[in-house]
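Thread: Modeling a multi-component assembly for a lab meeting

Hi all, long-time lurker, first post. My supervisor asked me to bring a structural picture of a complex we are working on to next week's group meeting, and I have zero experience with this. I have the sequence lines for every component (669 residues in total). Could someone generate the structure of the whole assembly? Inputs are pasted exactly as I received them:
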Amino acid sequence: MSDADSIPPTVLATFRAVLDQPDLELTRATTANDVEGWDSLSHIQILVALEREFGVRFTAAEIADLKDLGSLCDVLAAKSGKSA
Amino acid sequence: MNTGPLESFQALRTAAARMPEPAESTAVTIGLVSESSPPFLVTALEAEARRRGFHWRVRGEATEEVSGGLLALRGVEDEAAERPDYIIVIPAVEALFEQFLALPATERARFGRERAEAWRLARRAWADTGVTLWWATCVPFVDGLHGFGLGIAHSFRRQMLELHDSLLQAATDETNLRLFDLESLAAWHGRETVFDPRWWQEGRLAFALDFLPVLAFHLVNSIEEAAGRVRKVVACDLDDTLWGGILAEDGCDGLEIGPSGTGASFLGLQRWLLALRDRGVLLALCSKNDEAAVLEALESVPGNLLRLHHFAAWRINYAPKSENLRAIAAELKLGLDSFVFLDDQPFERAEVRERCPEVTVPELPMPPEERLPHLQSLNLFVQSASSLADAARARQYTEEAERRGAQSAHADYASYLASLDLQATVEALTKANLDRVLQLSLRSNQFNFRTHRYTRDELTAALEDSRRVWTILTLRDRFGDYGLVAVVEARLDDGGVAEIRNWFMSCRVLQRGMEACTQNCLVERLRAAGARSVRLAFLPTAKNGLVAELPGVLGWQRDGADPAIWRLTLDEFNPLSTPIEVIKP
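Re: Modeling a multi-component assembly
Sure thing. I ran the full set together rather than chain by chain. Output:
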C-alpha cells in the first residue's frame, strides 16, 4: 500500500469499531458502496465517532460534499490541523 | 452495577455487545412512536436495556405527528400477533414548531390546546387495552420570534406551556398515561448536548447521537422501575461520605458537617437522604469503624442531621462491605437488587460491584459539592403513579378490549386521516426532481419492492427514454409538506405489457393511504401510455418484508406459481379508495 493510499490508524479503528468489522481494510478510494454495512445510519455514527476522536465538527455542507474516504481524511486533516 | 449513562452512542453499542444474550422469557416489547427518526433511538434503548440485564424488543414507528403514529400503530396492531407491553411516545419540539408555523398566524394561540386534544383522542384508541403509554414532554425551545415570548398568547413558548399543562392534567385523569420528563432532562444537559441541527436536517433525528445514551438510560430506569424493579434502600458509608473527615482521626469536633463551608456539601447530601426516607426509602449504615464510637458520634457531632433512629439497619465493623450488605439485606428481608450503595472510596465501590453485582453503585465524584448534583441527575429513585396492582387490573381488561378496541381504532384513524387534508401531486421524472429520486432510491429499504439503486448517469439517460413510464408523487397535509415520497418506474414493451422496474416509498408516509394513491396514479399513467397489463417481480431483501404481500392488498393477482410474481390487468382495475386528493399539476 503506497503512502498516498494509506488511511490513518485512528480513522481505520473508528470504522472497524462502528461497523463491527475488525478486519475491515480501507483505501482513500473506498466509498460507502464498497463497504457492507456503511449505510446512511452507520455513516452518521462514523462521523460522530470521528468528531469525538479528532475534536472537530463537520458542517452539513462538508458532509454533503464527501465523495470517498480520501476526501473524508482530507477534511479531517484540514479541520484538526493534524495529519489525519 | 456501575450506574450512569455511557458517554457516547458508540460506547453504548460496544458495552451492550459485550453482555450475554438475555433470556427470551424476560423479553418486554415496546412500541416507540416518535417524531424523531426511530432507528437510532431503537438501537439505544435496546442496547441500554441489555447493558442493564433487561431484554427489550423495541419496534419503532416513524411519524410526522405523534397522534397519527399512535393511531396507526393501533390500526396495524390488531393484525400483528404481538401487542406491545408499553408504548413510548416522543414528540420532537422541532416537528411541533413546524406544525405551529404551518397554522395561520391567527390560529396559533390555539395550537397547544388543539395538539393536546389530538393527542388525547389518539390515546383513547389505547385506553381499554391495558397498555401503558410513556409520553415524553418536549425539549425546551427558544424560537426568537418574541424574545422568550412568555407574555404573548400566540408565542410558541406559551403554546408549549399550555400543551404541557394539558399533559399534566391528562396524566391525572388517564390511568394508562405516564409522563417522562424529557423537558427536565434536556434542560439539565443543555441544548448543545441534546440537539444537533445537522441530523435533524439530514434525517429528522431530533437528538444528538451522544445524547441518546442519556435518554435511553432514563427511559429504561423509569419503565423498569414502574415494572417493579424499585430501589428501596440506600446503604451509606460514613467517613468522608456522610460527613467530611475521619471519625477515628479527626474526632467528633474535627468533622465537617454543618451549614457552611465544606460541611454544607455533606449536610446537603444528608438532607436529601432524609427526604428520600420521608418518601419511604430505607437508609442503612455500612462503615468500617468502631461501632460504639459511631453510635455515640451520630448523636453528638455538632451539626450532624442523620441520627441512629433514621437508619433501618447498620453494620459497623471491619468486615468486607459486600458481606455487610448481604447481612443488612437479610435483616431487612429485601433483595440486594433493591440496594443503592454510596461510598467515597473507589476500592469499596469496586469490591461491592465485584461481589454484589445486583447492587447499584454510583460513582461518588470529588469534590464533595459535585456529589449531590451527580446523584440527583441519575434519577435512581423513580416514582410514578403506577403500582403493580394497577398493572394487574389493567391486564384483565385486555381481552375485552381486543374485541372492541380494534374496530373503533380503525374508525378513529380513518377520520383522523380525513382531517389531515392530504394532497398528492403526480409527475414524471424531470431534471428538477432527479436528485431527490436518486436520494430516495438510495435510502429506501423497507418500502421497496425491487431495491434497485439508481445512479445519476442512469437517471439522466432515462430523461430521454420514452419507454419508461414514471409515477412520482409528492405529498402534503395541513401540517406541512413531505416533499417527494414515492417513485414507480415501469418499462413498456411493444405488446402493451409494462414491467415494474422499481417501486419505492419513504416510510415517513406509511399508514396514510399513499400506497393505494400511488397504485391509482400508476394505473392511470400506464393506461395513458398504452399499456394493457403490468407485471411486478418482488425481489426480497433482509428489510423489505413489509411489502411482500402488499400487491395482493392493492388488487394485483399472483402470476403463476412463484409467489413473488404479480400481474395486474389494467382494464379490470377499479381505483382504490384513499384519503388523499390528487392534484393535477
